[in-house]
Amino acid sequence: MKRLITTIQNIYKIDDLRIRILNTLGFLLIYRLGSFVVLPGVDSVVLEANAQQATGLAALINMFAGGAFSRASIFALGIMPYISASIVMQLMGIAVPQFAKMQKEGESGRKKITQWTRFLTIGICLAQAPSYIATSVDPRAIIENTPFFWISSTVLLITGTMFVMWLGERITDKGLGNGISLLIMIGIIANFPTALVFEFQSQNSVEGGGLVMFLVELVFLLLVTIATILLVQGVRRVPVNFAKNVVGSRQIGGARQYIPLKVNAAGVMPIIFAQALMFIPMSFVSITDSDAATSFASLFADITGFWYNLVFFVMIIAFTYFYTAITVNPNQMADDLKKNGGFVPGIRPGKDTSDFLDNIISKITLPGSIFLGIISILPAFAMIAGVNNNFAYFFGGTSLLIMVGVILDTLQQVESYLLMREYDGLMKSGRISGRSNAGSYGVAQ
Asked: Which of 176, 207, 239 is the last residue of a domain?
């Protein structure tokens, strides 16, 4: 405790770090306040009285938006359209040579891609905003269902998303951590106290060991969180030597370094891709009356069902390999090593090094993808065990991975500031090593 107090005092002494932390808290406060501002023309009292428990994709979006989705807030769409646009731009950089060229143009190329991402975000919002009003806002809560209401609400929803995007960029520039990731994380954490209290009340009302069951759930949640931290932080260190160069009386290079290959290089993206595809069967049923299609989609309607979780698990493994393959390039790593005079001991530079790294990546990706798949389906098992749905989402899946990754990434930045000022860091001698996957959660760096 004394060491923690000393660390907090050291943080306060660093002006830049203190200002960045205060800026981050201020921006996050603005985001949370905005999530409670209801769209004009929507009666919040009626909306709350007739509120229904969100399920499926709506529940996931509502969690990421910090409850703004179910409240018909001006931030109802949250940051998800921007994330979708960022994912599309990432894939375009692989499939379209023009975008791949822009990615290699440095700062100027990054600015062009950012601008294209913003335009695409507006386009996605134009499609999602009217759909949200039509399907997710209770018609009984709309005071006057007029064309003006639809136009004004659509404009406000688009503006809200762009403002949230701007807040995320300001946090990244003026605050601490990745702004987009922090906005998602704060939305998820905002639901945790309510879910925890509701679960405590529901278990406490059960006679004969309900409170004991609640404590068991908390212990299990702690163990899952520790396992998730190990997955996020797990790396395979590949030793690398650099050729010695003597310049005057100084020796440059010659030291052994390591390439940290992450066990879970894909981050949370496989889960997001898999979840998006799992909702396709139900969406297809809504546009067709085929009995065969309805029968097939019913197999995936229950998120606690066997077939849903089996297919979900297999898809996560497949997408983990896919996303790792398009984001981690062993050929580029081998070329960079060769250009800088580096080599893996016992391995020839060039293609042999590339094959060696590719083999290691393939080996560590398999256990990483299986572990990621297990964590992803844990909420379903928690629901089967009787845990409340809202609380069960914190037992794994997207929400837990995002929270762990973002928190570790933010702590690492604080650690860097402290070490630069020669203060003791937040961790003991085994400090956080390597970057976390928070950037991939927020997608846009």
From this structure: 176
**Which pLDDT score is estimated for 431?**
42
To the question of pTM greater than 0.70 for the whole model, the response is yes
CB count, 10 Å around CB of 440? 23
Over range 128-157, report the average pLDDT: 88
Distance CA 182, CA 438 (A): 9
Q: At what angle do helices 179-204 and 80-95 cross, to 10 degrees?
A: 130
Residue 166's pLDDT band (boundaries 50, 70, 90)?
A: very high
Mean pLDDT of 295-314: 76
Domain end marker among 176, 209, 235: 176
The pair of three-digit structure tokens given for residue 348, joined into one six-digit string: 């020839």
Number of helices (H) and strands (E), helices first, in the chain?
19, 5
Q: Are 79 and 165 in contact (CB under 8 A)?
A: yes
- What are the phi and psi torsion angles at 97 (to 5°)? -60, -35
Per-residue tokens: 50: 């007739």
Per-residue pLDDT at 428 exceeds 70:
no
Instruction: Tell whether 124 is covered by a domain.
Output: yes
pLDDT band at 442 (very low <50, low <70, confident <90, very high): very low
Domain span including residue 251: 191-445
Does the pLDDT value for residue 427 go beyond 70?
A: no
Do β-strands 235-242 and 245-247 pair in parallel, antiparallel, or remain unpaired? unpaired
- Centroid of chain to Cα 204: 33
- Stated length of the chain: 445
Please report the DSSP string for 346-415 in residue order.
Answer: TS-TTHHHHHHHHHHHHHHHHHHHHHHHHHHHHHHHHHHTT--HHHHGGGSHHHHHHHHHHHHHHHHHHH
Q: Is residue 272 part of a domain?
A: yes
**Residue 103 placed within a domain:** yes
| C-alpha angle 373-232-161 in degrees, rounded to nearest 5 | 85
